[in-house]
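Two proteins were folded this term; both appear here.
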Amino acid sequence: MAGYWGPVTASVDCCERNYEISQYAGEFFNTISNVPMILLALIGLCSTIGQGFEKRFSVLHLSSIVIGIGSILFHATLKYRQQQSDETPMVWLMLLYIYVLYSPDWHYRSTMPTFLVMYGTAYAICHALFHFGLVYQLHFIFLCLLCLPRMYKYYIYTTEVPARRLGHMYVISITSGGILWLVDRNLCSRISSLPLNPQGHAWWHVLLGFSTYFGNTFLQFCRAQQLGWNPELRYVGGLLPYVKIVKSKTH
């Protein structure tokens, strides 16, 4: 079915029926489910700026906003060009995570960001030219795996119980979301026979938004500890964690 945006040209078509709810949103639930990611990233950005964290963390939250907007464009239009506006920023975000995770111990400070920017630019050009499918997915998984050892190192060196709990929340949300993504992707024929579509891909968006927020907040806490800022975890409404610097910065 073709809606307002015309025929589907994207190489990925999720299990949600196209243009079932609105002619302006090819996949309605997959479109609106990006809103939590954008809102959480805005909250994280305001907290990051207010607490005086390094610009890298502001860029992390801004990247999440870009991903959310790109995903909205993709799932609303189901066009291949907009699909790239979803997929390419995901790769850029992982490159940014690599920088945030590894740069504190990297002695040649200018080489890492220079290489990552060049790599990210080259990937974006190649993705636009060659229309990666499986290669994109394998590449993204590879970048995620590069981040895992360093994330685990931060976790084992953090003794604060609330921070470790935050790490658990990150793992649970990203793992649950990944499972729902796989189910929606590989069991669509069975899902389509159900009376009600559970919208696994939409829940992946929601859980990805929370996992990204939890992961960014965890990294901010660890970085504040490295800098001797005496951080504490506080909660918005008793639920949403953020890092509070409780004494003057001396570094």
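Next, the second protein.
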Amino acid sequence: MPQLHWKSKISASRKLMLKSLMVAKAKEELEQEIVEKDEQKAKYLEEKAPPIQTGGLSLAELRILCEELHARIDVVDEERYDIEAKVFHNTREIKDLNIKVLDLRGKFKRPNLRRVRVSADAILRSLLGSKHKVSLDLRANLKSVKKEDTEKEKTVEVSDWRKNVEAMSGMEGRKKMFDAAKGQNQ
């Protein structure tokens, strides 16, 4: 489908004039809004706090008027304190809930992990460094065990251990055991 290019039929001077008219209209509306807010504020204050006539009042009447005003102030302070306590409680509850939400979904977005195929040798090389040559051929590292060797070991283990206890004690005995084991392996 071919793209349609709309050429502006309004000249630059006309655009500038329209923009200036729009700005002027917005400025008028903003000023009108400020005036309306001031009028609403004055009206509210007249309803809630009518002007006090103190002229021609005696000292006793002034005291009574002050006590009434102080009573009203106390009521308003109590309401303000209650509202502040509710706000404080709600903000604390909101913080706790935000912490719970963060705990539930995790503190950070975990990236999608890609599956990477790495051989065991490559893992060992990366852990130990390239200087160490390690192969993970486990079968090559295992000792081959023959059935005859296990039977010989069992017969050696079964012999009485109390024989030659004194002969095998100390460093000389350990040397004899080492030499005996070395002789059997060869």
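The mean pLDDT is 78. The first helix runs from residue 12 to 48. These notes refer to the second protein only.
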